[in-house]
Amino acid sequence: MLRGFNEAYELQFPSNQYKIATAFGSGLGESGCACGAVTGCAMVLSLIAGRGHNYESERLAFTVTNELHDRFRQLEHAMCCRVLTKPFVWNSEEHKMNCERIVKEAAEITDDIIQNQLLDYLPKHGGKALEEKPKYINNPNKVRI
User: Fold this and answer.
1) Where does residue 102 rank: exposed (0-12), middle (13-18), buried (19+ CB within 10 A)?
2) Local structure of residue 128 (DSSP, 8 states)
3) CB 132 within 8 A of CB 58
4) Residue 80 forms beta bridges with which residues?
5) How far is the C-alpha of 46 from the C-alpha of 58, rounded, in Å?
6) Contacts of 15 (CB under 8 A, 6+ apart)
7) What is the pLDDT of residue 102?
8) How far apart are CA 75 and CA 86, in angstroms?
9) What is the 3-class SS of 87-103, one letter each residue?
10) Distance (Å, rounded) from C-alpha 42 to C-alpha 50?
11) Could you state, in order of their start, the residue ranges of all structural domains in the chain?
């Protein structure tokens, strides 16, 4: 996911850092938990919409990642690798074909989100800056104002 989107959208992520996503495979390091395709796509969305400083808002990254999650679950009825692959013998041809289908679905959802909500944030489109977080100002209850 990371390499494909980095190259397609010229995200300027250093190619020698692709290994950062290695452990996402097989449901997070073969634990069978969160789908590695979806977690990889969440990393891509964060590269585009994530904050680089703690004073920047994480709202956009959270919103688009939540949409990725919801749309994927609507199609697959699960986010858990072990649920998504339950009908298949692990590492069988059928299992691998199912994973390829799932990777394609997650990539298509992510591409749609980028095309429809994040183009302005891409480096080649000017790299629009994120909004700053609301600040706590003389606010004893810590309510965002």
Assistant:
1) buried
2) P
3) no
4) 34
5) 9
6) 3, 6
7) 96
8) 16
9) CCCCCCHHHHHHHHHHH
10) 10
11) 2-125
Give, in degrees to the nearest 5, the angle at Cα 132 between 131 and 135: 145
What single DSSP character describes residue 79? -
- What type of residue is 4? G
- Do 29 and 23 form a contact (C-beta atoms < 8 A)? yes
State phi, psi for 3 to the nearest 5 degrees.
-65, -45
pLDDT tens by residue, 29-88: 888 889 999 999 999 999 999 988 888 889 999 999 999 999 999 999 999 999 999 999
The pTM of this model reads 0.86
The residue written with tokens 């994973």 in the block is 99
> Tens digit of pLDDT for each residue in 88-128?
999 999 999 999 999 999 999 999 999 999 999 898 888 88
Which among 56, 61, 47 has a CA at the least distance from the CA of 7?
Answer: 47
- Output the pLDDT for position 43: 95
Which of 80, 104, 92 minimizes the C-alpha distance to 31? 80
Q: At residue 132, what are phi and psi to the nearest 5 degrees?
A: -80, 155
What token pair was written down for 144?
């965002």
CA-based nearest residue to 81, from 121, 22, 38, 124: 38
